[in-house]
Amino acid sequence: MSQPKYVGKMEWPVAVQIGKGLEGAITSETEIGYVDGEKGWLVYRGYNIFELAENSTFEETTYLLLYGKLPTQKELDEFKQKLVSYREIPGEVIDTLRKVPKTTHPMAALETGIGMLGCLDPDADKCTMESETEISFKLIAQMATVAGAIGRLRQGKEPVDPDPTLEHTANYLYMTTGKKPDELMEKVMDVAMILHADHGMNNSTFTTMCIHSTLSDMYSAIVGGIGSLKGPLHGGANEQALAVLLKLKDEEDATRYVKDCIANKKKIMGFGHRVYKAYDPRAKVLGKFSQDVTEKKGMGHLYRIAKRIEDEVIAAYGEKGIFPNVDFYSGTVYYAFGIEPAMFTPIFAVSRISGWCARVLEYFRDNRIFRPRAMYVGPRDLTYVPMDKR
Ligand code: SDX
What we know:
This protein is 55% helix and 3% strand. It is mostly helical. Helix 4 (91-98) runs antiparallel to helix 5 (106-120) and helix 12 runs parallel beside helix 14 (300-317). The longest helix has 26 residues, at 129-154. The site of s-citryldethia Coenzyme A has 22 residues, from helix 15.
């Protein structure tokens, strides 16, 4: 059966400057958040992150990311009530999570749990602004419940039902540990959740937007975002950074470790950033928490070792713009509160679900499918070779 034939030869594309890893690529306009890499600034809807860390709560910040303004008390109360009303998850999700091997990484389990939520939601494929907004509320509420259940099942314990009287972060901690957090843990972890909620066009946010830009559903988009965040170059670095600290016995060991990484050009987890060439403002807040909380919990050595690593890395790489990022100190704080390292990145997802949903909804208002190109540098104008001639 003969086929149409090409006429003429392939044209060599004009050589273009490729930003490896999409460095410098601008995907879209946004009003949600801004990162100034040179100054080390992070802004949500015009408010700088230090002001929000000082004065806001995770629920209020989530409202700000979604709606573009700080809520009145009535608006915040109604929003919180909406999230509380969505905290419960169907029993089938727990049944599915029970089948996940205990050795599975919690982020892989989280993908499974969120995917199952999508299978059970009759509105999953409606794909209207109204349905995607309602599903965003469900996902913001239920990411915490699914992550909490995973945390409990990993320990061979029964999931804990959400407590409607607790604030969002406190309820997440309660569902993960089985204990209501004390005031210090609730306050510090709520600020950590504010810090992790949004961060420009990072890989996982771009992934969720990419998936949804095909008019696929919110659940599929968020499952993709979780898969991206799991990577050690992205949200998985918090777990990796702590694993290094736990292996080092003192500051001298920390110095030896950094010198070895430098000599062998090994990446140091929790350092460097595609955008920040200054100190990550989130690491400034988390570094202070790390010092205070590890001291209070009798683990001050962890902070001192981390601080030595920071000093050594900045001495060696500060000129190159390599400083601590959000993932360097966060793990010491979570560990000091008794959270197991494998559950660190799920905490990132329980927070970043707000930024993911806000940005997917923003782009959905004027959607166009993402479709970049690649520079073809392979062979050209070859003729098919029959098998007996190869
Ligand atoms: C997050 O994008 C976001 O906003 C992400 C995030 C968010 O909130 O969503 O901020 C959260 O993911 C923080 C990053 C967590 N990842 C890590 O801590 C892993 C370690 N960091 C590196 O792998 C790296 O810094 C990245 C992945 C964060 C950034 O990678 P880039 O921009 O591609 O940088 P690169 O690998 O091209 O490095 C540029 C240079 C290289 O040296 P040269 O070859 O030019 O001599 O800097 C060096 C790198 O070797 N370098 C490091 C380093 N990070 C960069 N050297 C040692 N240790 C490091 N951590």
